[in-house]
Amino acid sequence: MMDLPTRLEPVLAGLGYELVLLERAGRGLIRILIDKPDGIGVEDCVTVSNHLTHLFTVENIDYDRLEVSSPGLDRPLVKPQDYVRFAGNPVTLKLRVPMDNRRRLVGELVGLEGEEVKLIVDGKEVSVDLRNVDVARLKPTV
After folding, report:
1. Coil, helix or strand for 17?
2. pLDDT at 43 > cutoff 70
3. Which of 44, 53, 82, 99 gives 77 a disulfide partner, CB atoms 3.0 to 4.6 angstroms apart?
């Protein structure tokens, strides 16, 4: 059986949306973050929720609750191409293994070179192995 994110990506793309993140949480909750170039509104969430509710019923996907929302201003960077797309933006990285006694890095995203995330932290370019990134999020500017 194909995993759920792989199954949903083309379905959402067909509706004009990008699957940002899919989480299965406790008590049968499926949480889905979607995006599109001009942003996400409540109507988009309703459209996707209705479509996926029908799809999950037809495909017999077990769940109790479905949440569909936008990724927000602190959008998570999940796929390698996200690091390219959001280059030039401020980001926060939480690392699996600390670098220089730091588990959290805040800086400007330069991009992705191979498997290395490049960012400017305190005026210096830093490289982080993509596999060492636990959570990466855009850092909203005020």
Report:
1. coil
2. yes
3. 82
Measured CA to CA in angstroms, residue 81 lies from 49, 86, 105 at distances of 25, 9, 20
- For tokens 């730091």, the residue is 102
H or E segment to which residue 10 belongs: helix 4-15
What pLDDT shows up at residue 141? 80
The reported pTM is 0.85
Ordered by where they begin, the domains of the chain are: 4-69 (3.30.300), 80-138 (2.30.30.100)
Query: Distance between CA atoms of 97 and 29, rounded to whole angstroms?
Result: 30
